[in-house]
What does this fold into?
Amino acid sequence: MEDRESSKLDHYSSGTLEDRESSKLDHYSSGTLEDRESSKLDHYSSGRACSARGNEKNMDKQKIKKAVKMILEAIGENPDRQSLRKTPSRVAEMYEELFSGLSFPAPGGLLKVLPAEKNEGTVIVRNIPFYSMCEHHLLPFFGKAHIAYMPYKKVAGLSKFARLVDVIAARPQVQERITRQIASFIWESLQPRGIFVLIEATHFCMTMRGIKKDGSSVVTTCGKGIFANKKTQSGIISLMVHATYYKNDKSNKMG
Ligand SMILES: [Zn+2]
It folds into this structure.
């Protein structure tokens, strides 16, 4: 599993590269697109994307504690055993964090909408790490999300996309729905010409149980507008995959 703090977001749009020292984002742009976010992506290091505004009080931690104790009893364990005694409350604390996205019923509002410059190119925010819980097995799945959109009249601060991914992932989920929801919320909030989301993830319910296919990953996509078309999608996917090669060549322009 990749360290959250060391992971980077790569952000590409058609044009030349500009370094943003104040941010962990690698931001490639035509020069017309400004980085509207000066703040660092500190919610990655804290792992509590939603604690600032989420209403965690809604979660019934007592009920979680009781349930975890019952599970321990049900599997034949002794919940009063020294090392297990605090497990129910630990799990309750942890669930409050892992499912904190539930207190954001409309996460699309997290995208701070700003007016777009004229002729914005395609913006790709790559390698957004996320962690979620499979709602079928309550086991983790995690991976990277890549978001591409072609703005029309609105754009959003770059770090807001990462926050949107965090909040959507922080609830019982399936990968297909995360992919669809990210695309839909951006589609509704920014009304872009096109949006395309690609997610690659590893599921513990596939690797540590059942078929036990270690190293397998699942790729899901969702495209809308001009990126609903398979032909335009393939261009975007190749940029998502190959843009790394342009990273160290500032003179290189991407079309
Ligand atoms: Zn599962």
Remarks:
- The chain has two domains: 9-47+108-246, 60-98.
- DSSP finds seven helices and ten strands in the chain.
- The domain at 9-47+108-246 is CATH 3.30.1130.10 (GTP Cyclohydrolase I, domain 2).
